[in-house]
Write a structure and sequence with these properties.
The longest helix has 18 residues. About 6% of the residues have low confidence. Helix 2 crosses helix 3. By secondary structure, this protein is α+β, with helices and mostly antiparallel strands. It has two domains: 94 residues, no CATH class; 121 residues, Heat Shock Protein 90 (2-Layer Sandwich). The strands form two sheets. It has a five-stranded antiparallel β-sheet. The chain has a three-stranded antiparallel β-sheet with strand order 1-2-8. It is built from six helices and eight strands.
Length: 231
Amino acid sequence: MEIRDLPEGPPLGLGGLRFEAAEWRLPEGTQLVLYTDGLIENRQRDVGVGLNVLCEALSGAGIDPEETCETVLERVLPARPVDDAALLIAITRAFPRERIAEWDVPAFPAEVPALRAEVFAKLVEWHLEETAFATELILSELVTNAIRYGAPPVHLRLLRDTKLVMEVSDGSSTSPHLRYATDTDEGGRGIYLVAQFAERWGTRFTPNGKIVWAEQSAPSVPVLPVLVSAA
């Protein structure tokens, strides 16, 4: 069992604020436990004592996330909590390499059409041709934004799972913003189009820049089992 040091950021579940991503390589079957301070800290118990109680509860729990949640809440959460508490437990699984496609993006907008063609070929290989129109539009906007307003290196990644996820990373920490262009504006509609064609989109920050991601529905992708539980 290991307690990881995380970059400071907004509380778990609070959206709309910037946060810095942290990355680790974890073996398959690793159990992740995420929680808010309301679970381990109160007026009668400081953080250090609460962490010890949490670790003891986890050491006696099984591997099923739902059962682990019940065990932790029973042993750690006070009978009358004075603060809201959130607990999320997940078990990692290996993501098949054949469901990942990656490209290093040249720093020239003129190269984007060739990149679209390569992405389309990958969608055909994955039997996701029905997503091609929206995927190519999202790709054009995110990659062009990264080239024009970001910083090298620019990298594109597609993830084929229960959803189709596109990630475009670059070396700048400047985040794109959704705005509504007027009829006379020549630009400014890119992120608005991404928001219209993607189910969800957002930005996560890394020590070396940012990743702008967009998620689309992909009905033909088979569902893989995910072990996760929240309380």
